[in-house]
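Case study: Ubiquitin carboxyl-terminal hydrolase MINDY.
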Amino acid sequence: QVSPALRTPRLPVWLCSLSGRHSVLFGTDSRLLSDWKRERIFHLYFHSGQQERPRTAHLTIDTHSHPWEDAGREGPCSPGKRRPALEMAIRTRWAGATVSWNGTEPFS
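Here is what the predicted structure looks like once written out:
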């Protein structure tokens, strides 16, 4: 029998399969699950489980940023427009959000 805590997590947790590798994206603020106002600027942590990336990345997600303000700086086909798979996965939940990697090299 599955524990009730496994069916309804107390903290936000997402299991990810990015580029054929499994990883975990999670938050430490339980209110993110129940209070939509907490989704303005919040922190998530990403652990890839890869030996070459043993550290957990601390991400800051901003759902009210204005990405169109930077649109004029680069062309739509420029390499700077490509985003890591993790950022694209985060945007499936929070469309248009900006992701700050807080000094960590983005995972491809």
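For the exam, be able to explain this: The chain has a mean pLDDT of 81.
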